[in-house]
Each structure stands twice: as C-alpha cells, then as structure tokens.
What we know:
The chain is an alpha/beta fold. 28% of the residues lie in helices and 25% in strands. It folds into two domains: 4-31 and 283-411, Lyase, Ornithine Decarboxylase, Chain A, domain 1; 34-279, TIM Barrel (Alpha-Beta Barrel), CATH 3.20.20. Strands 4, 14, 15, 16, 17, 18, 19, 20 and 21 form a nine-stranded mixed beta sheet that branches. The longest helix has 20 residues, at 208-227. The relative contact order is 0.16.
Amino acid sequence: MDHFEYVGGAMLVEQVPMEAIAEAVGTPVYVYSTATLSRHVGVFRDALARLDNPLIAFAVKANPNAAVLATLAGMGLGADVVSGGELLRAIAAGIPADRIVFSGVGKTEHEMRIALERGIFQFNLESEPEAEMLSQVALSMGRRAAVAYRINPDVDAGTHAKISTGKSENKFGIPYDRALASYAAARDLPGLDVQGVAVHIGSQLTDLAPLEAAFTKVGALIGRLREAGHDIRTADLGGGLGVPYDPALPVPPSPAAYGEMVTRVTQGWNVRLMFEPGRVIVGNAGALLSRVIRVKEGANAPFVIVDAAMNDLLRPSLYDAWHDIRAVRPAGARVASNVVGPVCETGDTFAMGRDMDRVAAGDLVAFMTAGAYGATMAGTYNSRPLTPEVLVSGDKWAVVRARPPIEALIEGDSIPDWIGD
Ligand SMILES: *Cc1c(COP(=O)(O)O)cnc(C)c1O
C-alpha cells in the first residue's frame, strides 16, 4: 500500500504532482511519502501489539536520509545501525541512543568507542574476536557493553543469494552449534554484559517458514543458555520481511501474518523482543522519478534511455531486482521496452522486454518501490552527481538532500604539485 496515485491522468504523491517535483528539482530524484512511511510503521506496530514493549529498530542502511529518520524517530522507532556513520546519523536525526542496536561483522575499535560513549542499547556481536575487542574497549572506558550474539542458524532464507545471510557459509553471526561455547567465553569477558540473542537471516523474504525455523532455533537456544546460567533478557529477531515489487507475483506475507507467527513462536520466552525492519517500512514509500532522454531502436524492443542509471538505483544490476516502471502521465498504449540508463555498462539495465506504458523522449517515468536500498546505495560512477531526495507530506514537499553541483566532484579531488614536473 502506498500513496502514489493517478489523479486526472498523472501520478500524484499524496497531493503533490510528480511533474511539479521534476520541474522544480530536475531528474533523477527520489521522492518519499510521509503518509506511506507512517502507515507502514502503524501496520508493523499493530502486528506486534500483543508483545510486551517490543523495540522496533529501523534498519538505517535501507534509507539513512535525515528527514526519513526524523519522521520515524517521531513515531518512536529506534535504529539498527551497521557503522559509526549510521550511528551518528541516527542520533543526529533524533533517535535516542537507548533505542539503537549496532550490528555488523566489522565494527572497529573506533566505532565501538563512539557507540559506548553514546550509550546504545545493545551491540550484536558476530564473532569471538569481536567480543574480546569490545570488552577491552569498554574496560578502557570504565564501561560494560550490553551485548547479544548474532546466531547463524543455518537456515536458507529462500531469497536472492546476495541478500541471504543465515546460511552457515555466509559471513554473518556465530555458528549455532558453537553458541554455548561462545556465550561461555563472553561471560568471562569483564567488559561485557551478555543480555541477549540475535538473528537476521536475509532480506526480501517472501515466505515465513524460514523465519519461523530460525526463531524456533533461537527459542531453543535461549532455554539452553538459561540452563547454563546466562541471564538472557532480549531477543532480536532482525528484519527481512519482503515487500511487493512485481504486481504479477504473489504478495509477500503481511506484517500481520508475521506478527501472528512471532507472537506464537515467542510465547513464554520471557524476553524483550527486538525487530530490525528496513525494507518493509520504507520500500513502498519511495519512487525514483526519471525523465526519458530518448528512445532508440533495438533488435527486439525499443531501448528507452532514461536519465536515471545504475549509480542512482543499483538494485537491478546488483541483485537482478525488479522495479515496476510507470509513466507519470500514461498515454494509454503499452509496448515491450528495454529500459536502460546512460552509464557505460551493459549492467546499467533496469528492464528488458518489459510490457509497460509507451513513453517518448521528455516523458517522466517512476521506478516504484525504490524507498529502500535506493538512494542509500547511490554513487557517482561516470561522474554523475549523487541523486537528490524529496520528502512529501500531504500538499507540502521539501528537498531533503540537494543535488550536489558537479563542481563538488571536481573540487573533491586534488592534484599534487609534483604532477607534470
Ligand atoms: C539489512 C539488515 C536488516 C534489514 O533488513 P530488511 O530486509 O530491510 O528488513 C536488519 N538487520 C540487519 C542486521 C541487517 O543487516
């Protein structure tokens, strides 16, 4: 469910014409809907209503824009961060440190120090050497770090290989079979307060069964850890719930179905449950608005060359991701089209042979469901400036990240004076 709708033949985001945004800001540009964000937060929270005080920590990597984070902070969400940069961005946007959890396999000493200074809620540790380092850093600051171990449950999430994280061969978490030994070692580290268990098996899951299998393993582990004398108070069930991208495919399980499953599986765990949703909160709240530069004949279908490219929206080239592509003002006809960007890579392809609105040079198109893992993955390849972002609320809208001038790229480099000597 989103707030991008056709009224009078053209697409509006809430009450704002996409055409007006393109006119004022130029293209390509990401456009986010506040109403969709708050609707998704509400739906997710309602799905967990039977749990006691769950911590919903938005996965910042899905969309770290300050205005998006501030919107979510205003609705009481915490943050799941995977770097010192994300941590500082979340705090700067108003997310309280005591609602922040720090995930990731490669936390550095410096990042640990920043997180300890701010007083975050929990570190999710991913290895024994990391536990040892965190204990030392905490001790050197006269603190104890609240930690959970992220368990690798060896469950196949059934999603794309590049977004699966819970198989034993993936880099994430500690092996399930070694968990008791790892927890015993962590208990002996004086800088740590071992409070929980965490799991996150992947992203864009379209089936609840792998999640249920992973959570069931976490529940069993909590029992065994308590028998071994650990005081387990939190269980972080990660993120991963999928969103609909292709309207021709079955819709992924709803947050309500997820919430029912979680409520059933975690009955009697007697912990504070934590969640790290990313995509399900922001995915459908964003679209990438782009203009057709020209249409060129192709062997099997016309190439629609748009001014957005793989540097703006990487998901199709990185994960073979599918985004619905719609004309902002559809003329009525449809035609099979190859939609590509201007970057000099064959991978800069958004869709091949796609049945879609017929478009011509100068028309606007919207890549739907681009609010998650969109702008956050943008880069400057081919010396293209970073993509700007706009947030809409009702009839109001604002640029929440401006398009940098090309001079910023040029001036960012420096030429040492010994070149050309
Ligand atoms: C990426 C990530 C998430 C969010 O995943 P979604 O599929 O966007 O919900 C949550 N937790 C961790 C540890 C992650 O790496």
